[in-house]
Structure formats: C-alpha cells, structure tokens
Design a protein that fits this description.
The chain has two domains: 284 residues, 3-Layer(aba) Sandwich (Aminopeptidase), CATH 3.40.630.10; 119 residues, 2-Layer Sandwich (Alpha-Beta Plaits), CATH 3.30.70.360. A hairpin with a 2-residue loop joins strand 5 and strand 6. The chain is 34% helix and 24% strand. The protein contains eleven helices and 20 strands. The chain is α+β, with helices and mostly antiparallel strands and 416 residues long. It starts with 8 loop residues before the first strand and ends with a helix. Helix 7 runs antiparallel to helix 8.
Length: 416
C-alpha cells in the first residue's frame, strides 16, 4: 500500500462532538476487568508478536503469489482456535471469532502481499533493536498484530456482542488492484460487514480518507526494423519519450492533492534496431474523484498527441498504434470524521494516551469506503522506515501500543 500519506488534520476537536456516552467508550472499556486483562496480555505477549512479524516477513509474498504466507497465517488462525478458518477464491485467509451474534460484524484485516518481486531476499537482520528486511513493517506488522489481538482477547476471556472476522488479504500492493477486498465485499462476505478496519504498517495513524488511483499500461506498437536500413520508420520508444515529456509538464492541484508518476518503462530489442514495441506504466492519484478524472483526461490526450507527433515526424511507412490498458482503478473515498467508526478510533486512541491524527492513505479501506461501508486504516504500532525499499526497517520500541489500540478498537466496534 500501502503506506499512509502525511497526516492532514490534527483532530483534537473531532471527539468534541461526541455525545457523553460515546465519548466515554474508551475510558469505560479500560475499566472492565476482561479488557484490562487482555491489554495486560498484549504487553506480556508483544515479544511473541514481534517474532511472528519476523517469521511472516521472511515468507515471500510477491503479488499474485501470496499463497505460502497465506498458508502460514491460516495455520496460526487454526492454532489460535478461530472458527470457520478458510481461504476464499481470491486467496484471502479468513477466520471468525464469534460473538453472541453475527452483528455488529467487524472485519479486521492486514494484507499478505508485498511490493517485492519473486526472488527478493526477504531474510531479516537485527541491528541493535532495529529489525531490517523487505516488508517487515508493510505489512508483516499488520499480520502479526492480528495474531496478537486474537491471543490477547482469549487471554482476557473477552466476549463481544458481534463477530470479528480476521483477514489476511491479497492484492493490496501495486497492480493487485484491491482484488482481495473486491472478493471479500462482492462475494465472500457480501452484505455481512458493518465495520472494516485495515491494519497497515507501523505507527498510530488513523486514515479515514482513501486516496484514489488510476493506473495504466500504455503500449506503442509498430513494425520495427533495422536502425540504418529502415531509418524513417516511426519509433515506439520515441513516441513513448514524447508522451513522458508531456506528462512531466503537467501542473496539478496541491489541494486536493493530485499526483502523477511514470513508474516503469520498457521495450526494444537491441541498440541497432528500431523497436516494434515500447511501454510504460503510469500512476495517477488524488483524494478527489473529479481531480483524478481531470488528470486522467490530460494523460490520455498527451498519449494520443505523442502518437500523432511521432507518426507525423516520419514518412507513412509503418505507422504506430497505441493501446492504453487500465490496469488499476482504486476508488477514492472518505469515511466522515463524525462517523461512529472514526469517532470511536479517535476515542480509544486518546484513552490510551496516544496523539490523534486523521490522515489520508491508499489502502484496502478504499474499497469498502466506495461502497459506503464504514472503513478506516490504522497503524500497527512501532516505527517503520523505508517502506517499499530493500532497506525497510522496523523499530519495535513500544510497539505494544499499536496492538493495544487495535484490540481496544475491535472490542468497541464489536459491542452493541
């Protein structure tokens, strides 16, 4: 994902609008003996949570190949006594902790996949108290917190009115296009979910704004030929360069924040060949659907103009064509600041003495937000750095606070 955008609003005032009963949710839960026992178990068990984080991080989970990590999580769900542990058609791993009834039904999720391709060395190393390894925070941390919450709820003998479904989902990163979430909400748990919380990465942020994105793979095609003998043919790589140059000159709004990026390019056969194909992958994002559509339109025109310019530069032999494939469509969304799920997240975070920020992110929560299902994303505690890089690291100092917050929020949302 998965990482949060920089927090956009300090929301000390967000809980001011809470009613007296709602404002005391976190404080009242902290006085209950079962919750007290569960929170104490979190602190006691945190070394085990961090160890499980390391173990899961060291199981490769590249896009579309999350099966090994999913199987490891499923074994842990079974060992912890969840009911109806299963793997759905997309590869999501689910397990239920049943309440007195199904509703309120909370889904607490973390994503299995990473951005790292097959063959990446995902072995972790420790330098002092810091753990380093690709994916150690994003999102092995979230997966480990799921396990820590389950274990602590059982240790405290916490019963909830509603059911909590714990999910390790696929397809959050890159071109996964939220396929795991689409499976969950369109088929596996369609019509069942009252609240959705994603645990993604580290820290104690709360993201209730979903940054939407459009992702394209653009391919210019032509006959290709010899660089000397066929000189004069239109060149797909030249056309690609023209398009990139135009895209690079876009001016986009800072409010609502809107971005664009050409992230990957490829094509060609050899230095002395006019290529028959050239491609690029482009990512555009915004918190505002209209702004996202606007930059998408400009992108499409830039690509079309580049095609015309390259074809017009040379003779009429071997004209180029272009294909713009939409390979990712992540909807923008927002769960209102005054919604129950956001106010509850604010309240339990404050009850645990942590600072409160509401922010924006591009996460699994985007999809349920687009369906108007109350959804947020929270950090799993600790401090992560270098997400999506081979130098990614995690500092587990006070990481138990993230596990405690996830537990307290889960209990609050699963009680009537």
């Amino acid at each position: 994902m998965g990482r949060f955008a920089t927090a956009v609003a300090l929301v000390l005032a967000a809980s001011a609008s809470l009613g007296t009963q709602e404002a005391s949710i976190g404080a009242r839960l902290l006085e209950q003996s079962d919750v007290k026992a569960a929170l104490a178990a979190v602190r006691q068990n945190e070394p085990q949570v961090v160890q499980e984080q390391v173990e899961l991080s060291e199981i490769p989970a590249p896009l579309m190949k999350e099966g090994r990590r999913g199987a490891a999580l499923r074994r842990r769900f079974d060992a912890l006594g969840l009911s109806n542990v299963r793997t759905d058609a997309a590869g999501n791993v689910l397990g239920d902790r049943r309440g007195r009834s199904l509703h309120p039904h909370l889904v607490l999720a973390a994503h299995l996949d990473t951005v790292f391709p097959e063959g990446t060395n995902v072995k972790t190393v420790r330098e002092g108290g810091i753990i380093k390894g690709p994916g150690i925070a994003d999102d092995a941390r979230g997966l480990a917190v799921l396990l820590g919450v389950i274990r602590a709820l059982d240790a405290g003998k916490v019963r909830t009115d509603g059911t909590i479904t714990f999910v390790g989902n696929v397809g959050e990163e890159g071109l996964g296009d939220l396929r795991g979430m689409k499976q969950i909400f369109n088929q596996t748990l369609k019509g069942e979910v009252d609240f959705f919380v994603s645990i993604d990465g580290s820290g104690l942020d709360v993201a209730n704004v979903g940054v939407g994105s459009h992702r394209y793979r653009v391919t210019f095609k032509g006959p290709g030929g010899h660089s000397y003998g066929d000189f004069g043919l239109a060149n797909p790589i030249h056309a690609l360069g023209r398009a990139i140059a135009q895209i690079a000159e876009f001016r986009v709004p800072s409010d609502p924040k809107t971005t664009f990026n050409v992230g990957r390019v490829g094509g060609g056969t050899s230095v002395n060949s006019i290529p028959y194909e050239a491609w690029m992958e482009v990512d555009m994002r915004s918190v505002d659907p209209a702004a996202l559509d606007a930059v998408d339109t400009r992108f499409g025109k830039a690509v079309d103009r580049a095609l015309v310019e390259e074809n017009g530069r040379w003779d009429n032999r071997g004209q180029l064509s272009v294909v713009k494939d939409l390979v990712g469509d992540r909807p923008a969304g927002r769960t209102p600041d005054d919604s129950f799920i956001v106010r509850t997240a604010v309240d339990v975070t404050r009850a645990l003495g942590a600072p409160i920020d509401l922010g924006a992110g591009s996460t699994d929560a985007n999809y349920p937000m687009s369906l108007e299902i109350p959804a947020i994303t929270i950090g799993g505690g600790g401090t992560g750095r270098g997400a999506h890089s081979l130098a990614e690291s995690f500092d587990p100092t006070d990481s138990w606070r993230g596990t405690q917050r996830a537990l307290l929020l889960a209990v609050a949302l699963a009680r009537k």
